[in-house]
Amino acid sequence: MTDERCKEIYTELRDLSRTGYKNPDGSPRLHRDPSIETKVQARMEVLLPNHVRISSYKLVMMNTLTLYAMMQDSLEKYKAWCRERTKLSRQLPEPASADEIIKAIGEVDLLDPISRGNLCDLLGTDLYSHIDIGTYGKYHYCLRPDLFQLRPEDHDIDWNDEREPMPSCILGINLSKTVPWTGDRRKEHSSDESGSSNISTGNDGTGFVFTQLGRVCYLDDSRRQKYHDDGKFPIQMPWLDSGFVLVVVVRDDGSAGAPWLLFNFMPVHELEGSRFRIPQTDDEWGTLPGSGHQYVALQIGDRISELRFDKQWVMTSRFGGDYSPQLVAVVNTSPTSRGQLVRQKIFENSR
Fold first, then answer.
1. Within 10 Å of residue 306's Cβ, how many Cβ atoms?
2. CB neighbours of 340 closer than 8 A, spacing ≥ 6?
3. I want to staple 95 with a disulfide (CB 3.0 to 4.6 A). Which of 129, 167, 210, 220 is the partner?
4. CA contacts within 13 A on the Cβ side of 191
């Protein structure tokens, strides 16, 4: 019983088992065919003993016990092959390297479902890949991939929008000035939630469409050096959650643009599992370690490929604590062509 023969038998039995979910015409059954188990068992009994290649002369000369032993040996080899296959399928693959992830982000086409799906598979694994993304002040920063850190509130989603919705890893952010003495958004600066028509926007001075990559964690330089001297790898060091999420802007052609840090003002409670809003008056709201200022959004480069271990961040654009963020859903403007990914327009009276 060779491995190749085991694979052939396994494939045939698997395909036969799957017919229990289909009618003879190929349409799906409402319920599984209960007789299929008997058919699979009968076919298995035929396939395995028949693999014992014995000439007619030898068959006559052999006694029944010898033949039975050969059949049992064939069956045991097949079972062992199945156990080994199951064992291999349960082994987790090696996590992608930092270079592989950064390269995949830089090459993604977010208007293409296959390209978008491949990136999501790479970032959505439970395996932790350590990705250094630069330094700011006396702190080192890394990315911990996580596609769903940011999420709009239900009242900030237009559930009646008939255009193609994007997966929730792709969102939009509206940025509008606040009135200092009230904290309310100024209507003249809020492009997506005011106006007379439900016209969506892509990337402009009031916000942008992005795909989220994961949590940004930090560790001060002295502690990182100490752990390094003790023989610890970066992945073994006690990195702390900064409260910010690394995202990349989605350009009009679907490619990944500039990397930004967005503050997660509605994180998930670690114990309760539900989301809670951090008040903008809280000292920890939008405070990036080493900055001493409140920010809701910070651009830290022009391309994702710039981010690396020794990259000193130069924040070319930033929105501080005098801005009010609003996360919204993203839709494709055209269901039949590549279209453009744009932010939904949300009316104030719907909130």
1. 17
2. 202, 252, 332, 333, 334
3. 129
4. 17
Q: Is the CB of residue 244 less than 8 Å from the CB of residue 262?
A: yes
Q: Note whether 294 and 285 are within 8 A (CB).
A: yes
CA dihedral 222→264→209→104, nearest 10 degrees, is 40
Residue with tokens 């045939």: 12
Contacts of 48 (CB under 8 A, 6+ apart): 9, 71, 74, 75, 78
| Residue 254 contacts residue 247 (beta carbons within 8 Å) | no
Both structure tokens of 11: 């494939």
The closest of 290, 318, 319, 314 to 300, measured between CA atoms, is 314
Q: Please answer whether residues 196 and 213 qualify as being in contact, where contact means their C-beta atoms are separated by less than 8 angstroms.
A: no
Q: Cα(153)–Cα(102) distance, rounded to whole angstroms?
A: 30
Q: CB neighbours of 136 closer than 8 A, spacing ≥ 6?
A: 288, 290, 291, 312, 313
Q: Please list the pLDDT of the chain residue by residue as tens digits (351 residues).
A: 788 888 888 888 878 877 777 676 666 666 667 787 788 778 877 777 644 444 444 444 444 444 444 455 677 787 787 777 766 655 556 677 888 899 999 999 999 988 998 898 888 876 677 899 999 989 999 999 988 899 998 888 888 888 888 999 999 999 887 745 455 555 443 334 333 344 557 888 889 999 999 999 999 999 999 999 999 888 889 999 999 999 999 999 999 999 999 999 988 876 676 788 888 888 888 898 877 788 999 999 999 999 998 899 988 899 988 888 999 999 998 877 788 899 998 765 544
